[in-house]
Amino acid sequence: MNDAARSPRKPGDLPQPYALHIQNVVEGALKRLRDAGNKNVTDEERLRLAALFHDLGKLMNENQAVLSSGKRLDSLPLPHEEASVAALLAGGGNDPVPAILAWGHHRGLPDIPAEALDENPFRRKCDPALRTRIDRELPALLVRHEANGLPGLKGFSSNTFLKSISLRILLSCLVDADRTDAAEWDFGPAAVSAPELRAEERLALLEKRIAALNEATEGDSAVTQRNRLRNSLFQAAKNAGNPGIACLSAPVGSGKTYAVTAHLLSVAEKDKLRRIFVVAPYTNLIDQTVKDLRDILTLPGEDAEEVVSACHHRVEFDDPVLQRYSSDWRAPIVVTTAVNFFETLAAANATGLRKLHQVPRSGIFVDEAHAAMPVWYWKQAWVWVKVLAKDWGCRFVLGSGTLVRFWEMKALNLKIPEGGVPELAPEEVCEDLRRYEAGRIEVRSRSELMDEQEFAEWALSLTRPSIFVFNTVNNAARAAFEFQEKLGTGQVEHLSTALAPKDRGVTIERIKARLKSPSDQNWVLCATSCVEAGLDFSFRSGGREAASLASLLQTNGRINRNGEYGHEAEIWSFTLKRKGAESGFSSNPCFEESAKVLERMLKNRKVSPDLATLAIEEELAQSVGQNSAKELIESVMQSESAKQYPQVEKLFRLIRTRSLTVIVDPGLIDRLERREWILPREIQQGSVSIFAGEEAEVPLQGDLGSFVPKRFRDFLKPLKFGNELGIFTWSGLYDPFLGYMAQLLVSKNPGALFV
Length: 755
What we know:
single chain; alpha/beta; Rossmann fold; six-stranded parallel β-sheet; 30 helices; 18 strands; about 45% helix; about 15% strand; globular; disordered C terminus
């Protein structure tokens, strides 16, 4: 027989043969599992069975009539996975995993207790009449399956325990193999495969760059001293071992990213890792890290954008047309956010899990780990990290200039792996770095509450160029707007996620150039926490809106970074009058408790990176009885243990608000509306992520209702593809200075002009 798996590409073409699709998915899924380092024959057989029968229901007559006719429908007349589940459950074995995988290749992972307790496990949502019909026709469907030249169903039993993260990886292999084959049938062959890691060669490039930097700055005594310390850290990290999870605590500006990259490349060569992840807390940190790594680690003849991939926010879609725009993690070096990385580990939906199989056999640098997630969330994330390290060949490094050793905190009660969590650098190297750091900058505090005008007048009394970091996008934009009124056009820079990544990149390069110019001193930078890490800025002075000790010290690292301003540099912790985002400065509830702890530490003159863990412990003690994060993560852990996967996905959100991917690039909007082929990285570069209400769900009909703040609601237009509302476009005012905040500020001040 020659049954169909997918409709013809266009009228007159033949449909994709069922046997061809099944063979491609079986081979593709097993290849992904083997590439992930799996050596468990039981898991391989589980995946093989699921892939072999995942589309069995497409052989039902009504579905074949549609698939063979050339019609393109949003869905088939009968849900095809129902027959797959029925066959795998009735196949004579006792292992439900193949059926769970087949059930989830479109739906995602189920609530297993709810399914198992039902009289029709994993079939309870199937219409009773259809369920009866499938049971009656199942023998004939299995015969028809074999008549297409495919292997028949044999019983499979297993008593092997499957950890939740491993189940997610198996489903990821199936989903990606299925959707990749479907996309290649519908739209043609996939892009060229990603480059290999080639760790030894890239490490040589990195070592060459470090040597060149040392040579270039040899004449500057202050920078030379700093470079000697950085080089000591680099060599120590490169040569250190890694039992699975290690850490690096070194002051801001000490070259942690290069040191950890060298370490992971060295480990990758030894342990045959496939790729390296740099997991950053902020999207803006991605821009700078990606630029530097592309510049250094791209080998001759390679496309830098294929070597180092930038994933600013989650761009994932279910609709077949949109799936090709989804971001993936195929590159040898992937730079992404903590939200993107850790929420993928928690995912239950098939689209969110699709790229997870790329994580095994990776070196993973959790950069600025103190800011990766609320500390209570590590109770669950730590479980996943340990499984990935022990069972899937991953090597983690937790790094920060203000490292919070959460694994040692009694409140969390985490189990430390047998090999411990060793430091990559010996104590003497760390001590030399701390000693240098102690005399670099003076930390001061201003407790008076200030509105926009009062803040600007005070801030302009500090030596410029200066940097000011705020707790919200709104506050940074309002301060920038006020500074522009006082200093004039061109004397203010602004960095926040109100800007699309391509505009942030341009701004960062302009800031770097201005900081190098001795004649360009009379200007300021207003930013959000996205500049607190990874950016090689060195201002004369600055301030940080009261938040946490870690945030203050991270901003500290953007001032007098190399000691070039002697002992005259200063940083202030300041507080603002808050009227609300509609008319003035706004508050960020996430920092309320940490700001109180910081205030006490500043009064007692206790400000150093060594106190980062103590500060977090004080915050936790201060919030006893009102810690919703602790209660939430306990619910997550209970759901994970019970295998209630949709509940885990729903609860484990590092940012409790939901967000929309909004395209702000007019040219990109035009191409999308014409349904041109667009690379995922183009969407990343030309879009912003606008936060919505807490736990809000994306509406499917284009009526935004109360989903987004009222002040932005009229400027969002959905781009509709099939059944999915996946992308929005921005019709409001947007400029490369204030980003989408221009709509709120400039539109109410029509006389304002920005360049």
